[in-house]
Amino acid sequence: MNKRILVLFGGISIILLIIGIVIGNQTAKVDLNQQKISAENLQKEISQLKDQKKDLSTSTSKLNDVNKQITDAEAKLDDLNKQNQDVLDLVKDKDDLKKEYDKAASQLSDIKKQLSKAKSDLNSTNDQVEKASGTLQQAKGEPKTLSAGNYVVGSDLPAGRYKAVPVGDGSNFFVRDPGGSAYVNTILGSDGEASYTFECSNGDTIETESSVKLIPVK
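Predicted structure:
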């Protein structure tokens, strides 16, 4: 009886051992398959990460290129702004110089007018003084009669001091300096002066609208 029980327990033990081995093998296979699946998933993730890294590297390179283009564009913009400022400064300087030139030209014109007026006043004063004192003397040289027209002192007649006397009814009589300013502007004849004494220099111009006689005087 005891031997049968022992044999029975021994058989059961063997069966349990076999069942355990089978179950262990099945569990090991399941674990191995799961590990295999996990490894494949991990490999896929690694591959995806590598692709993402590659894309990121390409994007970074593009970003660096864009940043460089932006930097170059900003540098060009700075250069253009500087050139623009230089042009603005030049235009401002030019405008300032033009204003100074116009101011100087205006002052020069005023000075010429004042000089012409002073010269005319001096000639008129000298003529009046000499007429009053009777000291007006004819200088050497023949009187010169000018027909209506324009004449250049130094070419058409010598520079010097003259007494202008109308021939006939007379007319307007002008003497201008080389700049064109009239320092003698009078009317000779019945509607104006019987005579007018003036002094002219080379380059001056004489304009008369009718014949006039110029008598050299001292």
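Summary: The radius of gyration is 60 Å.
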